[in-house]
């Protein structure tokens, strides 16, 4: 079958989990993939590249911490040097720290804010000049169900994921005349390390609240990223797509 995605995609935090599934899904459709992750996760990230290359696509690792402006700028320069352009940016890297606000602390607040919100801001800012020059871009931000409802204990995380929706809308508005779209996904609970670290009892209690009756497979969210990243999605911008198994109806 003809592959439809003759594009270059940079996916942050794609050494494992959802990011890795997004990389595989975009690669399946023909995209060249720039895999980003932390040096801390280098082994899994290199394995991701090997898997993608085995699929017959071009894939390269660009280690960088998305919270560090100099690392982000240098990563974007290197991706453009390697592939000639960046057409698709997926701001996927994220961390989670649970805790009630009245017991909260600035250390957790800062850590989550830096990765989940400053990271996407820096990456978006770094890719926009070349996307604007090329009159083409697809930016997909991975927000969360927690940005849509007040879930107990998600104060740090939900605040950053809500901010990411703001960043999405303004990026969409500012770049709409330049062939660039920016959209967000608001996934519910996905079967990745981020969720699997919860005790089994807590997980089962959570699953009992999901009308579909299970966690999402990473691929189910990755397919929605693909949809937002396709050329044909040019008229969808500033949108937030819920993918939560009916948790929020
Ligand atoms: P994960 O922990 O499995 O993967 C996150 C990846 O991001 C890791 O590879 C990690 O090394 C990388 N990362 C962390 N900090 C980074 C940094 N500063 N720079 C570069 N890379 C960094 O988590 P996941 O479940 O795959 O999450 C992916 C995204 O999906 C996150 O933004 C998360 O908030 C979001 N999300 C997850 C769920 C879920 O249920 N798992 C639900 C909604 C949204």
Provide the gyration radius in Å.
17 Å
The CATH class: Alpha Beta
Q: Strand arrangement, largest sheet? A: 3-2-1-4-5-6-7
Order of helix and strand elements from N to C terminus: EHEHEHEHEHEHHHE
Structural class: alpha/beta
> How many domain units?
1
**What bound compounds does this protein have?**
nicotinamide-adenine-dinucleotide
Measured between the Cα atoms of the first and last residue, the distance is 36 Å
Describe the structure.
The protein is an alpha/beta fold and 249 residues long. The chain has one domain (8-243): Rossmann fold. It has 8 helices and 7 strands, in the order E-H-E-H-E-H-E-H-E-H-E-H-H-H-E. It has helices at 17-28, 42-54, 69-83, 106-134, 155-175, 193-196, 200-207, 218-229; strands at residues 8-11, 32-37, 59-63, 88-91, 137-142, 180-187, 240-243. It has a 7-stranded parallel beta sheet with strand order 3-2-1-4-5-6-7, sandwiched between helices. Helix 1 packs across helix 8 (218-229), helix 3 runs parallel beside helix 4 (106-134) and helix 4 packs parallel to helix 5 (155-175). It is globular and about 45 Å long. Bound molecules: nicotinamide-adenine-dinucleotide. The site of nicotinamide-adenine-dinucleotide has 29 residues, from helix 1, strand 2, helix 4 and helix 6.
Q: What labels would you give this structure?
A:
Rossmann fold; alpha/beta; binds nicotinamide-adenine-dinucleotide; globular; 7-stranded parallel beta sheet; 249 residues; single chain; 46% helix
List the helices and strands and how they pair.
Elements: E1 8-11, H1 17-28, E2 32-37, H2 42-54, E3 59-63, H3 69-83, E4 88-91, H4 106-134, E5 137-142, H5 155-175, E6 180-187, H6 193-196, H7 200-207, H8 218-229, E7 240-243
Parallel strand pairs: 1-2, 1-4, 2-3, 4-5, 5-6, 6-7
Helix pairs in contact: 1-8, 3-4, 4-5
Bound molecules: nicotinamide-adenine-dinucleotide.
Nicotinamide-adenine-dinucleotide (NAD) is lined by residues 12-13, 15-19, 36-38, 41, 65-67, 92-95, 115, 119, 142, 144, 187, 189-190, 192-195.
